[in-house]
Amino acid sequence: MSFLKASLFALLLAAATGASSAQAQGVDPADVAAGMRLFRAKANCQTCHGWAGDGLKMDSQMPDAPNLRESQLDRDTIVTTIQCGRPGTGMPPFDRLAYSDGRCYQMKAADLDKSGLTLNDPPATLAPREIQLIADFLFAKVIGKGAMTRALCVEYWGGDVPACKDLTD
Ligand code: HEC
After folding, report:
1. pLDDT for 48-82, tens place per residue?
2. Integer Cα distance of 76 and 81 in angstroms
3. Which of 52, 93, 123, 124 has the fewest CB atoms within 10 Å, i.e. is most exposed?
4. 114 C-alpha vs ligand 1 centroid, how far in Å?
5. Rounded to the nearest whole angstrom, what is the distance from the C-alpha of residue 91 to the centroid of ligand 1?
6. Which long-range contacts does 148-154 make (Cβ < 8 Å, 24+ apart)?
7. How far apart are CA 46 and CA 61, in angstroms?
8. Which residues in the chain come in under a pLDDT of 50?
9. Per-residue pLDDT at 23
């Protein structure tokens, strides 16, 4: 994206996500497991971010996406990023109504057009509750958890699957 678009969008993002909130405490393991399934299957975050969220994408045709394990974003910003995507980048919005009514960065589709910001279609749309489950999963298993190791891989997949073979502890 051009410098101008990037700085315009950074401004909008800063304005929209100024407030932060405490991260969820005592998350239910069933919610984490449900969020993990959404990340891997329905939402297919892994095609761009990799199954481990480390940016090693599963599909070489997909845009390069950042390593979520090293993300510094707070929970509200993560939820907004999934809901609204990042216009002008490869990150798609997963809320079906994202740019219909101003809920995302106070912008509608026409505003994005005017600013020349394009959007990728998401692999699927997600309900607000599903986005929260993915955030539960990311904070429990991905964000701030360091590099993927063999032990974490076995725990992640629930067994010593081929994906874990080349990893070290
Ligand atoms: C089509 C590829 C693609 C898909 C699918 C995708 N992303 Fe992204 N994602 C990106 C790209 C590219 C960026 C970087 C955007 C930028 O340049 O600011 C990104 C950025 C992010 C960020 C911001 C990270 C940071 O620290 O700034 C988060 C969080 C994120 N994605 C989560 C997800 C989740 C969760 C899913 C699934 C619900 C998902 N993404 C699906 C491509 C994708």
Report:
1. 999 999 999 988 998 899 999 999 999 999 999 99
2. 9
3. 124
4. 23
5. 5
6. 148/52, 148/54, 148/69, 153/52
7. 13
8. 17-24
9. 47
